[in-house]
Write a structure and sequence with these properties.
It is a single chain. The chain is an alpha/beta fold. It folds into two domains: about 1-75; about 75-250, Rossmann fold (3-Layer(aba) Sandwich). It contains eight helices and five strands; from the N terminus they run H-E-H-H-E-H-E-H-H-E-H-E-H. The protein has helices at about 5-70, 85, 95-105, 125-135, 150-155, 155-175, 195-210, 240-250; strands at about 75-80, 110-120, 140-145, 180-185, 215. It has a five-stranded parallel beta sheet, with helices on both faces. The protein is globular.
Length: about 260
C-alpha cells in the first residue's frame, strides 16, 4: 500500500469517527433539550399546584379568622338560676326558656350568645356560693332567676333578699358595665298569706335597690295551668317555657 493510500484511509477513518461523534452529540443534545422542556413543564405544574394550595389555605385561614372575629364580637347573656333555667324534666334542655330566647336572638340576628348556668335545686344561698365561678367568663347581661326553692322551703324572705342582693353586688363588682335583670317569683297561697306576700315583695325591692330591670313574675300565665306544667305542677312543659321566654323577652329586649 502506498503512502498516499494509507493517508487517505486514515483520513476516512478520522472523518468517519468525527461524523459518528457529531451524530451522538446531536442526539444527546436533543435528549437534553427534551429533558429541560419536560422539567420546565413539571416545574410550572408544581408551582401552579402550590399556588392554588396556598390560595386555598389562605382562604381557609381568612374564613376561620372571620368566624373567630364574629364569635369574639358577640356579647354574653348569662342566665343564672335553678331548675326553671336548667330545663328540668324537658326532653331537650334547649327547650328551657333561655334556649327559646337564644333562638329569638338568632332570628333577630343580634350579636349575643346565651349561657345557661341553671342548676336544679339551687337556692339563693347556693347561688351565692357559686357565683364567683360563674363570673369567670365575661358577662354583658346577667339574668338572675333564683328564689323559687327558697319559697318552697319557707326560707325567710329577708334571707332570700339578702342573698339576691349579694349576688348582684358580686356581678357589679366584677363587671361594672354589665346590665342586670331580676326574674320575679311567687309562692302558692298554701305557703300562708303573710309569707306569700312578703316573698313576692322581695323581688321588686331588690331590683329597685340594685338598679336591676325586673320581670314581675317569670311564670305569669303558666303557674296553675296543668296544660303548661309537667306532672309535678311546678316545672313548665316546652310550651310553658315558650311563655316564660316571652315574659322575659318583653323586658330583656330593652336591654340589648
Amino acid at each position: 500500500m502506498s503512502f498516499r493510500t494509507r493517508n487517505e484511509e486514515k483520513t476516512y477513518k478520522i472523518s468517519n469517527v468525527s461524523y459518528s461523534s457529531r451524530i451522538r452529540f446531536l442526539a444527546v443534545a436533543r435528549n437534553d433539550i427534551r429533558f429541560k422542556v419536560i422539567l420546565s413543564f413539571l416545574t410550572i405544574v408544581l408551582l401552579s399546584a402550590c399556588g392554588n394550595k396556598t390560595q386555598s389555605t389562605d382562604s381557609e385561614q381568612s374564613a376561620a379568622k372571620t368566624d373567630s372575629a364574629a364569635t369574639s364580637n358577640k356579647k354574653t347573656i348569662l342566665f343564672f338560676g335553678d331548675s326553671l333555667t336548667a330545663g328540668y324534666g324537658l326532653d331537650d334542655p334547649s327547650e328551657a326558656f333561655p334556649g327559646v330566647i337564644q333562638r329569638k336572638i338568632d332570628s333577630a340576628k343580634l350579636p349575643y350568645t346565651v349561657v345557661n348556668a341553671g342548676v336544679s335545686g339551687e337556692t339563693t344561698a347556693g347561688g351565692l356560693g357559686r357565683i364567683d365561678w360563674a363570673l369567670k367568663q365575661k358577662v354583658d347581661i346577667f339574668i338572675l332567676e333564683l328564689g323559687a326553692n327558697d319559697g318552697l322551703r319557707g326560707i325567710p324572705a329577708a334571707e332570700t333578699a339578702q342573698n339576691l342582693q349579694a349576688i348582684a353586688d358580686k356581678v357589679k363588682a366584677k363587671y361594672p358595665e354589665a346590665k342586670l335583670v331580676l326574674l320575679g317569683m311567687q309562692v302558692p297561697p298554701s305557703m300562708g298569706g303573710d309569707y306569700a306576700n312578703s316573698f313576692k315583695a322581695v323581688f321588686p325591692k331588690v331590683a329597685a335597690d340594685k338598679k336591676m330591670a325586673l320581670v314581675p313574675f317569670l311564670l305569669d300565665g303558666i303557674g296553675g295551668n296543668p296544660k303548661l306544667n309537667q306532672a309535678d305542677g311546678i316545672h313548665p312543659t316546652a310550651e310553658g317555657a315558650k311563655i316564660a321566654a316571652e315574659n322575659v323577652w318583653k323586658v330583656l329586649k330593652g336591654q340589648l
